Amino acid sequence: MTDAEHASTLQPFDTSTSAKRYRAFSPSRIYAITTNTVTELTRLKVFYVLLVFALVLIGSSIFMAQFSFQQEFQILKDVSLGAISIFTSLLAIVATARLLPQDMEDRTVYTILAKPVTRFEYVLGKITGVLLLLAISTLVMVAAFVLVLYMREQAVLQVTARQLAGAPPDHIAEALRAVRSAAFNINIVPGIIIIYLKACLLAALTLFVSTFATSNIFTIVVMAFIYFIGHLEATAREYWLQAHSSGLIARAFLAVVALLFPDLQAFNLVDDIVAGTVISLALFTKTALLGVFYTVVYTLLAAVVFYGKEL
Amino acid sequence: MMRGLVALAVLIAVGLLKLPVERNLAALHRQEHFRGVEFNLDLREKIGQLGFIAALSGFRAIVADALFIQAYSAWENTEWGRMLLLFRQITTLQPRVLLFWDTAAWHMAWNASVAAMNDQKQPRLALRVKAQRECFALGKDFLERGIKNNPDRPELYEALARLYKEKYKDHERASEYYAKAAALPEAAPWDRRFSAYELSYCERREREAYERLRSLYDEGEKERLPTLVKRLKFLEDKLEIPQEQRIPETGSFKR
Fold first, then answer.
1. Searching chain B, which residue's CA lies closest to the CA of residue A299?
2. What's the pLDDT band for A1 if we cut at 50, 70, 90?
3. B4, part of any domain
């Protein structure tokens, strides 16, 4: 074949078409990884065990609380929101800790990364999947909580109306108003959003830890320590910044805690909200932004470390 | 390795960046009455190691509820000392929950005090009365500390007013605390009225009580309740108010 003949059989290389076909960042690829991650996680037994356990705890708070209606609603809300907080945090850690090690063990990660998927997209798809799962489970738990609270509220309203039968209408209205105000309070909603954001933060941090961890057990243990230290971070920070007369080693330790760990105590607003403290828009916005900031930073760090990881 | 060091450097940089933000947020929390509990050795001694760890991990409400259920059992078994300790722990953990302060005060000032007075193991009346007064004082202490932690909520002022009225028979202080409750934004509509009622029982303050009750009466039908009319008529007689200034005699409230 002469050069001229060879040239006529070859298709000209169209660089513009090629560039259109592959994009460095593709939401559809991330979406595919996200849906795959959600499907994978919902097939896990641990997800159902945690969810059922949380729902049972929320439901059982009815039987725990045979006190006056104020005491009953207080305990019901405390226990339910506490259960939501514990189980979303647990789920965030347990579900995320196994993502990367499991994919490496199953060799799925090699199949995915052999395709035109960047490591950043892979990490982003994975974390989005976990965040979606957390949103679904939080919604399920909140629905159970609202249902239980509504049922108890209706029962108490009926009993109160029966007890006050024959009383002046304004007395009855006042009593029923007291019951309603002790039950569901719209202020709880921002508190629940903050619980979700705390779980998102924990998921992103777990993903970051899992990028250099050797097993998911190691990640879970490290995250358990981080969880406790994170709740003490505010105390460590104040001691460090207020220059208490502690030694150099102690100050260095406090500085490490204050700088490297997130302040998880900042996300515990729901206890005071249940107690009747009104959350301002400024406080809610600042706390929510801090949660989003941490989630983004830890996800980016996870991507950076994962880029350099030898697979 | 290099990427690990970069990640660490970024973490430290982020740490330096977040410090003022977190401090600012913590200050906002304190200002808006969040984080109302001081985590220190005193709390550690009060709630034990497990409770302290749980409280530190963000489960302080659940720990407080568990202790509240224990306090409820202690009350059922009339273990007053144990109940008092439990309520001290509960209110330390959840200082913003009015219900806990109120219940603690009610148990001490109403239930424990009656039990102290009826204590058959103590034959001497003087000692029983002393024990009863101590229970009143414990109830009062809970309410006063509750008010210190929640100065913006009227419920505990009302509870303290009730305690002064019913246990100490101190109408002047009861009136003062009802008035304090009435001055707060979420006060019940009867607080102002109750403050005036209590004042009407105080010697040498009848004139002030009369003026307050009269001003409530003049607000209209809604305030003209049987007790208010009765107390007003009593004061009119006592202060010898001229006939033309007195409230009209009505069928059910004849002098």
1. B7
2. very low
3. no
